């Protein structure tokens, strides 16, 4: 099966997943005994005003009609209300937030660069740190280096990111002021400031997440280095650096790549705590807000977007797999 | 405002800055912190306001904000709030020459606009701009703001905004300087209603049905230079604002920057450390508990704290539809240990003990205590009342959020002393706000908090005790319905002479408490933190929030 057919098949199954996620979100939301129109009713809220608001937002319809209009909106756009006061959400309309007066697509377009900047930078860092220290620990197995790295990784895995973030801000931004305490600067506006504001969140996220990679890389490397083919290579006089990096590491990377794909995909959907502690307004913060404000349309739109990212990340990982390991064939039935 | 949760959301969402008032003679008292008097401060510099909210929707039609917080400095209205440190808040003319001339027994209110009032593009503000701004608030896409005027103006029920070319006939503009309002019924508090955000002038054709809230047209001393969600909104001077026409805004800083999406712990830390922008900043929300403890323990930080006087009423509502026996409700009045509640809320800094429904600082309030007892309660009296009622060990259900865990348990413990068993049902925030305001009312007890939208007994009593406010998302949590009280509320509301109205309100207050639908617990205080270079951090007797219209910098940075 060629790669295009494979991708096509994956996209078809992904659409089904997305539809199921939408269904689940709508069902969960409508099981809650709350009325989203209430928040837009104003104060004091009269029953007449409440029904006016519900009719305008479409929340007076049964859930399946609302879900139908939502899905239809993605393809043909939506219009709320009529006449001069109507609010139009052009296709692809992932929903409209009456709380923020913005289409969900626009909100995602505004927030995604923030989350992507945090996630990609941190991911690259933690992959480098995690894999390097994992290889090092494996090569120095049972020495002081190995024990220290393992010990540190236990701390990294178990430390809460909010606490470490807060401590990092207090130490490096407020006490010794070498980094800003938060905020995000657009790359297009000032690349240097962009980088400067991102270093601290990257480091915090990378150090915490690298821990897991250290452990998995170490275990994999130890496993690979004890394999017969390594012994054969050594006996043939292959240089140790080639053995470690070309043979063992390449094989050890397979499960690491799987984990990386999932982690990066998940992080792109929003690094909630990191965004919060560093005052960066990304997708995570948007999702969190939409939950506490019963903003169903934002909730569904942003979740779908995050789901698509995870699906794409998985797809890329699978393709990378086939490149790393020729034994893996895409789409083998 | 409303219930505590709603208050928090509203504060997060819509804090506004106002600059009111110039020198009131009191000395500047920043050195010892909690009570800053008014001084002139410096002119110039950049003041930072740190917000935890992630966006600032400045559309006046949708605002539930206090007139003295985020939008106070950019929007003028017909009337404004004059706030003095620890003094009574007064309604004063802002764009208009008076706070309103009533006629037709208070059903008609007439205003004349001042000379020299302009928008930030230099055009003169006319009565038609105010009418247009109000009409916008009726559009279906612009609901969500304070809507007192919507129930009062004649014909408003069927009006859907100006975007289809229709106008609301009960607002008349006979000429560019005059605006006349026709109400369904006399309403003595109309001058306060005219200070709310919906009365902000909006130039016709410049306020679309959506998207106006980002950089709206300004009429105050500042205009919005930029407003980027999640980052910051920048207010810069509006050169067309004439200080001579404005009795409340002092416009000290050259620039006010609202920094959004701030983590409150980090923000409070940066203010305490005073590094960088920290010393020129203040936190719009309350100080988080950890940083409050830290600041109270350190004299250098203590002076950065500012605690309000008696603010929102926190009360235990007794569902009168389910706890129908007056004697049982009176027993609860005596059984509650207010001291324990205060301690659970954070000690004395959390608030003073409450006995009345109208909160201190509101004109018309009379102090009284119908259920005299120690602050820890009178258990014997409670037991005796329960015995008389023939219910010596009632079982009651208290609903609470996880944030209320400690205060709810203090109520549980104190009622246990009198033999009343309280089952606490902890609910998720969203479910809780539905449960307390829906039409079923499946609870016996619930702890509420209420800060009125404007300083009048009407805004204090009517939303909590008028029978029209039961269920449907409204806040008569005791589900209290007494035709006599409804009639008194109506009478007081329709009384135009405010000192006369005040007397009726005081009578209403006592009449309600005689039925014991709620136990007043404390008048909660709010504690704020500001940088060492921030001055004129004035908090009046109402509301329990700083007056952004006056906050300025001690020296220009």
From TrEMBL, chain A:
GO terms for cellular component: plasma membrane. Keywords: Cell membrane, Membrane, Transmembrane, Transmembrane helix, Transport. It is a multi-pass membrane protein. GO terms for biological process: transmembrane transport. The keyword Acetylation does not apply. It comes from the Bacteria. PROSITE patterns: ABC_TM1 (PS50928). SUPFAM superfamilies: MetI-like. Residues 112-317 form the ABC transmembrane type-1 domain. The keyword Translocase does not apply. It is found in: Cell membrane. Belongs to the binding-protein-dependent transport system permease family. This is ABC transporter permease. The lineage of its organism: Bacteria, Bacillati, Actinomycetota, Actinomycetes, Bifidobacteriales.
TrEMBL record, chain B:
PROSITE patterns: PROKAR_LIPOPROTEIN (PS51257). One of its GO terms (biological process) is peptide transport. Gene3D superfamilies: Dipeptide-binding Protein, Domain 3, Periplasmic binding protein-like II. It holds the Pfam family SBP_bac_5. Residues 90-471 form the Solute-binding protein family domain. Residues 1-31 form the signal peptide. One of its GO terms (cellular component) is ATP-binding cassette (ABC) transporter complex. The keyword Nucleotide-binding does not apply. Keywords: Signal. GO terms for molecular function: peptide transmembrane transporter activity. The keyword Signal applies. It comes from the Bacteria. PANTHER family: ABC TRANSPORTER SUBSTRATE-BINDING PROTEIN (PTHR30290:SF83), PERIPLASMIC BINDING COMPONENT OF ABC TRANSPORTER (PTHR30290). This is Extracellular solute-binding protein, family 5. It comes from Bifidobacterium callitrichos DSM 23973.
